[in-house]
């Protein structure tokens, strides 16, 4: 089984480089949806019920909702221009998520976006829910959105964000091709690559938290001060992380009918001024971030990742991680592997799961597959390459006669007492440390020592994987 979701991402210490050493990339999105929302005038079955001042609104089947329509109209008639003045006066770039049918109904606003140098990305054909669309219907709507967007703006969109998407949206847009980025994801603070059916697509994650939509939700902002405070705290944390060597991206989502209200835009103005008061801040459009990322971190095919290998290749590569016990790798392969298992820690977890789930007899066989430390197999040079290197790293290939005699005596007594050889992850350890552990552990009862030996086997496996894979 291959679990498709990537819950690992960039791991604990992501590293990214922005232009001119910026500590953070800050990006503002202005969603232009007015005129593209659900409305019977647009051929929809019911009125709009999402993201307005009417919290908890319900769709009206077969009817126009005059109040809802006028709220959306406010965004086009007044809110847009207020946001336009704010951003152009402060010379802050922006990306517009433009619903194609909404853009078609707002020629003056489109001209203003273009004159300001804003990027106009596609926000789909209509601002409606897509979760129940068939693949064929959604594919057709994506194609029509691209066509209409190109006709209205004079340029094909290079970015895409559906928002109210289906489980198929990302793959369908990837199939459509021609996009520098897609933003139907909230999975990270950095861009990442998505793969589908032999194609790859850059993802620039969006945000639902640093977003004025929370003015229109039950659990959200009720004043501009709350909005400013949340944006400021988000910026401060991400800026500090960037200063510490791990730059990120901060997206801020805006809607003309929400942030464009007088009582909210003042908070947004304060935040823009706050951000512009810092050095090493990259204010960018999403297309700028996408192009920088594609140049700096181009997609790389990596079919050598554990979760992508065939069973034969997987077992050939990792079958020896647990000494002479290929069945552990086979069981791990047959289990649930995902991108989270493509690191040393991740694959170790999968292999250990198979080992710990085995019977006591099977685990005993793994213990007995390990050689004695400084024993007869070592002297006969019949150890596996891994065991040879591990024992050599601890100096066990260069014992004095007295040390060898001591190891021989302890090995014999240990095996006689427990029924399996003494096992210890010796890589990087000194001979005196190993002997001290040997003499201490031989006093354990069998249950304690069996558990201890199993943990040492797991430790050896981790050290071997760390030599083979990134952490």
TrEMBL record:
Record Gene3D superfamilies: Glycoside hydrolase/deacetylase, Oxo-4-hydroxy-4-carboxy-5-ureidoimidazoline decarboxylase
SUPFAM superfamilies: Glycoside hydrolase/deacetylase (SSF88713), UraD-Like (SSF158694)
Domain NodB homology as annotated: residue spans: 66-284
Pfam families: OHCU_decarbox, Polysacc_deac_1
InterPro entries assigned to the protein according to its UniProt record, in alphabetical order: Glyco_hydro/deAcase_b/a-brl, NODB_dom, OHCU_decarboxylase, OHCU_decarboxylase-1, OHCU_decarboxylase_sf, PuuE
Domain of life per record: Bacteria
Keyword terms of this UniProt record: Purine metabolism
Leader sequence segment: none
UniProt cross-references to PROSITE patterns, sorted A to Z: NODB
NCBIfam families in the record: UHCUDC, uraD_N-term-dom
Role played: Is involved in generating a small heat-stable compound (Nod), an acylated oligomer of N-acetylglucosamine, that stimulates mitosis in various plant protoplasts.
Family: Belongs to the polysaccharide deacetylase family.
PANTHER family listed in its UniProt record: POLYSACCHARIDE DEACETYLASE-RELATED
UniProt name for this protein: Chitooligosaccharide deacetylase
Gene designation: puuE
